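Interim report to the steering committee. The following record documents the input for Glycine/D-amino acid oxidase-like deaminating enzyme (440 residues).
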Amino acid sequence: MSLASPIDSKLEGVVWKRTLKEPVLSYPTLAGEECADIVVVGAGFCGLNAALAAAKAGQKVILLEAGIVGSGASGRNGGYNVPQFPGGITPGVVEAAIGTKKGQALSELVLGGADAVFRQIERYQINCSAVQHGWVQPAHSEASLAKVKKVFEAWKAWGADVTWLSAADLSARLGAAGYVAGWFNPTGGTVNPYGLTIGLGRVAVQEGVRIFEKSPVDGIEEGPGGVTVKAGVGRVRAKRVIVATNAYTGDFLPQVQRATLPVYLYHAATRPLRAELRASILPGGECFTDLRKSGGFGRLDDAGRLISGGAVFAFGDKQAYGIAHARKRMRQLFPQLTEADAAFEDYWEGYCAITESYLPHVQRLGKEVFAVVGFSTRGVNLAQNLGRVVGEFAAGTRSLDDVPVAVIDERRDVPLWALKVRAARLVFPLYQAKDRLGLS
């Protein structure tokens, strides 16, 4: 994958494809001229939910995907459905960034979003190995403890059903070593993210959305008669366009591509753990993500595979480096693992779109052309729920002011974007050092 053309429809090495339970559906390639009320570009979590919401509101919707449904970040992430902003961001920080009204609405969306995802999965009977046994944010150092405590207290004051956990509580609940304290939200959990995107595609079609795969958009033109979206020899005329491509935008819309930093991440999955290990590692089925810069998170899939990962270090043998780090991290977290237990069978890579504020925003690219970008590792929850809200806006059932993120009317590139993209490929050892020194 390259940033100029990041689409990888094969999803090689992605464990979620190998363990898929939803039937894969094939969709045609756009070849002629079509008309719609709304065109959505990008068949990931955000785009699928936007298309679904608009179609349910009575709109004629066409969804264009450059690869196949779920082949971007939505199909290859870790599958953590987290009811929290990235890292140590609190509702108060969000209100300071985007204003009280929108900040409170976005916090409500995030707090209730994990549960909303699971309820939608149930409603549409999407077979994506969904497990809602809660999510934990543990503190691995004194520096992180202050941040984690602040986040917990903010949500507690908000009225959220959250619980503080001692070191002993965490050890019993996670089976992990080295955590000093943390907090728990019972609405979080895990999914097979590729299975979820495949299921959302099926549901969208049932609601009337027309999906076209292998139809990369290479032009969007707006005129008095509406918007024309070009994809090779195909054309779609519409009233409104929603671009939901995030880190998989490619070069065709540089103002969207450069509005976020596309961080290159990897995940790896062990073979299914032995029965005695499954009894001591995440025995209650919870998942967790800590504040380590070099990756501190854990979950099991339904076969008992342990998932790890971090940022790709694109120097030398990047896969070997990533696997070695993942093995070391898992054995640090779970000392009961032997070297053989921490052997990884699956390894895959992908991009994640990070904004400078770690909050998503809407870009206005034209009078009726909008892009939604920057879910910053919270796609399973936030991309889906914000996608639904944006779909309702596209359909005219809510105003742009009711979309609870900043709306940016001018091009706003990340400063020194090209340099930061290159630096991000080499910064992982620095993250590891900061974690070792207790600075994260």
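The longest strand covers residues 344-354. The committee is asked to note this result when reviewing the revised timeline.
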